[in-house]
Write a structure and sequence with these properties.
This protein is α/β, with parallel strands linked by helices. The protein contains 9 helices and 9 strands. The protein has a single domain, classed as TIM Barrel (Alpha-Beta Barrel). The chain is globular, with a radius of gyration of 19 Å. One of its GO terms (molecular function) is glucan endo-1,3-alpha-glucosidase activity.
């Protein structure tokens, strides 16, 4: 299908991953033909987990891993962890603060400190959550973020003004219903966050975000090649 997968280990949701469990999963899957490789190595990411950075010294060597974690320490400090074990960095700064538009200051900081190492830029359509069980109740401005952020990513990828460019983007998220930024289809079995998080309501129920995916072929083509390459077809639309 031309579709590869890679591990992104969540070290925040249920605590740190034990090193031996990560080792077992990488041993089983990292060399698989469907696993995503970058420069001949199996790409692995994380959500947080900087206190486990030393684990990755052995994990990288044992499984031929290209390691690009999200450690929310700032790029400078993240690159020091584990004796510089990260091969690149992923940022979770995908939403604007307050009333201002989304900017690229955080991205620029990562690109500066990475100094040529790969950067994985975050892109997300919006953010809302109200889950008291996780001590989470806030909204970050969305508006035109889904479009604006792809434009910023394309500029970072192709601009001649940038010495170091964005190599990857990661969409946040596919199915995080509890934070409202899911672009994947709705699955009732995946909505346990509303029960565990003691949500006052299931604000994802009957709220499909499928339309966001229709936009992706255009912006992905723009990011990858700097131009849009789409075959247009006419569809009928019923407006009620």
């Amino acid at each position: 299908m031309g579709f590869d997968l890679f591990f992104s280990f969540d070290y925040a949701g249920n605590g740190a991953w034990p090193k031996d469990e990560v080792d077992s999963l990488l041993a089983k899957y990292a060399a698989h033909s469907a696993y995503f490789k970058y420069n001949g190595k199996s790409l692995v990411s994380t959500f947080e987990g900087p206190d486990s950075a030393d684990d990755w010294i052995d994990l990288k060597n044992d499984h031929n891993v290209f390691f690009i974690p999200d450690w929310s320490l700032g790029a400078k400090e993240a690159l020091k962890r584990g004796g510089g074990v990260a091969d690149g960095l992923f940022s979770w700064a995908a939403w604007p603060w307050g009333a201002q538009d989304m900017d690229t200051y955080t991205d620029a900081s990562y690109l500066e400190y990475l100094n040529g190492k790969p950067y994985m830029m975050p892109i997300s359509p919006w953010f809302f959550t109200n889950l008291p069980g996780y001590n989470k109740n806030w909204l970050w401005r969305g508006d035109s973020l889904w479009y604006d952020r792809w434009v910023q990513a394309s500029y970072n990828k192709t601009s001649a003004d940038l010495i170091d460019n964005t190599q990857f983007v990661e969409i946040i998220s596919w199915n995080d219903y509890g934070e409202s930024h899911y672009i994947g289809p709705l699955y009732d079995k995946g909505m346990e966050a509303f029960t565990i998080g003691k949500g006052p309501s299931n604000f994802a129920k009957d709220m499909p975000h499928d339309g966001w995916r229709l936009f992706l072929p255009y912006v992905i083509s723009l990011f990858v090649s700097g131009r849009c390459r789409l075959a247009l077809r006419r569809t009928s639309t019923l407006i009620i």
